[in-house]
Amino acid sequence: MAGGGDELKLLGTWFSPFVSRVKFVFHLKGLSYENIEEDLKNKSELLLKSNPAIKKVPVLFHNGKPLCESMIIVEYIDETFAGVGPSVVPTDAYERAVARFWVSYIDNKLVAPWFQVFRSKSMEEKAEGLKQIFVAVMVLEEAFKECSKGRPFFGGDNAGIVDIALGSQLGWVRASQALSGIKLFDPAKTPLLAAWAERFLALDAAKASMPEFGRLIEYAKMRQAESDAANAAAI
């Protein structure tokens, strides 16, 4: 990889899909960076100082200056290193606005209820979260048809910011399917998204940025056991 004279450091956790978004763009563009692993159970002074508002990863340090929020970082990298590797943000203003809408939709209508399902204590909340998730998946199936115009990705011939926003979740989607049987991208119901997911995961940048599946499964089991124990103690 080549990073020129720029110093790029990424503060994150190996299992975070939001950190994977940033890593994907680094690898897509061939940019060198230093990975700094954060312990979210014992947050470092570096994290607390660099992201005091929400105290979450990822945090990008570009020549010592911190920047937070995964998709903001993705767009920043794309603009700052324009001409280095493929671009992921549409150049056309309208297409860029549409892409940003779908990124927001993914985070608010798919990712947010996903957290609700696996963190909530009541079956009613879990059921409502799953209902919202499956509605969002069907909407995204139609969105893919509209955005891709018959090409392989939301971004057209190459992966763009919508692909990155959704594709970064695929590790956890598959881990959850293996553990709970919940299948989000079903070839029978959402054939376009199912085929898209296979294409995304086959990308070199995806292979380099996504967490190793076996390790993710073990981590997910541990988190589920901790959550079950906490819920049982609260009863």
Automatic annotation (TrEMBL):
Residues 6-85 form the GST N-terminal domain. Transmembrane segments: none annotated. Signal peptide: none annotated. Gene3D superfamilies: 1.20.1050.10, Glutaredoxin (3.40.30.10). The keyword Lipid metabolism does not apply. It is an enzyme of class 2 (transferase). Its EC number is 2.5.1.18. One of its GO terms (biological process) is glutathione metabolic process. Keywords: Transferase. It catalyses: RX + glutathione = an S-substituted glutathione + a halide anion + H(+). InterPro entries: Glutathione-S-Trfase_C-like, Glutathione-S-Trfase_C_sf, Glutathione_S-Trfase, Glutathione_S-Trfase_N, GST_C, GST_C_Tau, Omega/Tau-like, Thioredoxin-like_sf. Residues 92-229 form the GST C-terminal domain. The keyword Transferase applies. Pfam families: GST_C, GST_N. GO terms for molecular function: glutathione transferase activity. It comes from the Eukaryota. One of its GO terms (cellular component) is cytoplasm. Belongs to the GST superfamily. Tau family. This is glutathione transferase. It comes from Oryza glumipatula.
